[in-house]
Amino acid sequence: MAKPHILQVGPYPQWDEEPLNDAFQVHRYFEAEDKHAFLTQVGPQVRGIATRGELGANRAMIEACPNLEVISVYGVGYDAVDLPACRERSIRVTNTPDVLTNDVADLGIAMMLVQSRGMIGAETWVKDGSWAAKGLYPLKRRVWGRKAGILGLGRIGFEVAKRLKGFDMDIAYSDVSAKPYAEGMEFISDPVALAQRSDFLFVTLAASAETRHIVGKDVIAALGPEGMLINISRASNIDEEALLEALESRKLGSAALDVFEGEPKLNPRFLALDNVLLQPHHASGTVETRKAMGQLVRDNLTAHFDGRALLTPVI
Ligand code: 8YV
C-alpha cells in the first residue's frame, strides 16, 4: 500500500527521522527555501502534518493542504495549531501529554534551585578566580520551607507540587476550579492573590487565547521584589513587556524562564539582566522523553491511517 504523505514542519532527532521516513512519504517543510511554493506543490498530497509544540500549524498551512486529515504535535502544548481551522474541516489533532510531565516538572524545580541559590554566578565565581581573589560568594536565598504558588494545577503543575512538598514548602495554587487531587494545597482562584502570598510562582498553564497575559502587571507586582517567577509553559501566558520592566526596575526579584515570545530570537533586554535564568525551551529536553514523544507522534499518525482510535487526541 502506498505510504501516506505527511508534511514535517520542523526537524526531529535523528532517531525519529528514520522510522518516520519508513512509515510515511515525508515532505520536509523546514528545508524548503520558498515555503509558499513548496506548500502549493506538495499541499494537495498531504494527509497528515507532523509538527512540534512551538511550531504548530497555522491556518495558511492547513488551508494549503485540502486533503489534510490529522495533525500530530510533538509536545503537550497545541496552542500553535489553529484549532478553529481544524474544526471547520474535521481535522484531527493529537499531542504528547504524560510522557513529558516529569521532565518538565524537574526542570521547573531545577530552575528554582539554580536561580535562588545563584548557582550560575557561583560557578563563574569559581572559574574566574573570584573565589581565590575575593573570598566568599554572596549569600543567596533559601528554597525549603518557603511559599510556592502554582498557576495551573494540571498534570505538570501537580508534579511540580509533588516535588515542592519534598522541600517542605507551603503550596497554594490557582486554576479554574479547586482540584480534588490537590491535597494539602490551598486553592486561591485569583492569580494576583496567589502571587501575593508566594515567594516562588510557577506558571504551568496550558496556553490559550483565554490565558494570554494572565501573568500581567498586577500579578508581577504582587509577587514583588523578593519574588521569583518560573515559566515552564508558554511565553504568551506572561505579559513579557511588563515582566521586563519589572525585572529591570527590580520591582520583581527574579525570573527563571524556559519560553519566550518570538523564540528562539528573544528580546535582547533579557540578555542584559542579571536577575534572570534563561533556558532554551528545553523542559522536555531529555533523550528518554524526546524518544517517547517521537514514538507517540508516529503512533498517533499510524493509528489514524490504520483507522484505529487515536492514542492521545486533542480533537
Ligand atoms: C517541546 C513543548 O519543547 O510540550 C510542549 O508543548 O513545547 C515541548 O515539549 C517542543 O515541542 C519540542 O520541539
Describe this structure as you would to a colleague.
The protein has 315 residues and is of the alpha/beta class. The chain has 2 domains: 5-97 and 288-305, 3-Layer(aba) Sandwich (Rossmann fold); 101-278, NAD(P)-binding Rossmann-like Domain (Rossmann fold), CATH 3.40.50. The chain is 35% helix and 15% strand. It is built from 12 helices and 12 strands. It has a 7-stranded parallel sheet. A 5-stranded parallel sheet has the order 2-1-3-4-5. It is globular and about 70 Å long. The mean pLDDT is 98. The site of 2-keto-D-gluconic acid has 10 residues, from loops.
Summarize the structure.
With 315 residues, the chain is of the alpha/beta class. The protein has 12 helices and 12 strands.
Key structural traits:
single chain, 315 residues, alpha/beta, Rossmann fold, 2 domains, seven-stranded parallel beta sheet, five-stranded parallel beta sheet, 12 strands, 35% helix, binds 2-keto-D-gluconic acid
Topology summary:
Blueprint: E1 5-8, H1 14-23, E2 25-28, H2 35-42, E3 48-52, H3 59-63, E4 70-74, H4 83-88, E5 92-94, H5 101-116, H6 119-127, H7 130-134, E6 147-151, H8 155-165, E7 170-174, E8 186-187, H9 191-196, E9 200-203, H10 217-223, E10 228-231, H11 240-248, E11 254-257, E12 276-278, H12 287-305
Helix pairs in contact: 1-12, 5-8
2-keto-D-gluconic acid binds next to loops.
